[in-house]
Design goal:
The chain is mainly α and 267 residues long. Helices cover 77% and strands 0% of the residues.
Length: 267
Amino acid sequence: MSLLGLPLAVLIGLSLGLLGGGGSIITVPLLVYVLGFEPKQAIAMGLAIVGATSLFGALSHWREGNLQPRAALLFGSIAMGGSFAGARLSVFLSGTTQLLLFSSVMLVAAVFMSRNARRGAVARVPASEPHRAAFPLVAAAALGVGTLTGLVGVGGGFLIVPALVLLVGLPMKRAVGTSLLVISLNSFVGFAGHLGHVDVPWGSLSVFTALAIAGILGGTWLSRRVSQAALQRAFAGLLVVMGVLILYQNRRALAPVHPSEAHANPR
């Protein structure tokens, strides 16, 4: 692992501690474009890194009173089934296709979180009424998040946080802490689904994970000093930046094939 990867690993932890997500959004592009791992390898490694780091962050948020175990276990138990299935299905997609799907979902999530921050809807949701949407809708969201987690190698925080805020009705800070436990469960199951299909460099994975854990402890401490609205705006901004970056890096896959090129390179 290059020296550049060391501070970036800490940044992953900071993102998870502050925002309850964003770790995989940073991890997968970092492993691919900075450290040179193959996309499928980076996706599997990202799940392990984010899963272990999120578990430490969830414990810190639990001590701060910003974690609702009931919501985490309900959402997470459903999401785990989708995560394992998505990981198995990922063998049928190319690495580039996975990254493009990854970035597209991020941009959609950014729109919803940005709108919610402007309306100030989260501030008006009472913490004592955690369940707003009907159970089938919450279950469908959890299953969808889990499937995407396994399919494109994300912890799912960028989808779990909006779901916990908009569907379950948790305040932003409690959604951040709760999402970390869901991310951890989801990521470990997704990682298990990739084992046997991907060669995992355990040495690099261990060092990277240890540094990310140090970062999440700092991020959890900082989260107590930042407003909920500011967290949502920062979260949405991170999604947009990383989503656009991934689309740019894979722009050739989006360009239409010229007829002359198709004839020159027949399959």
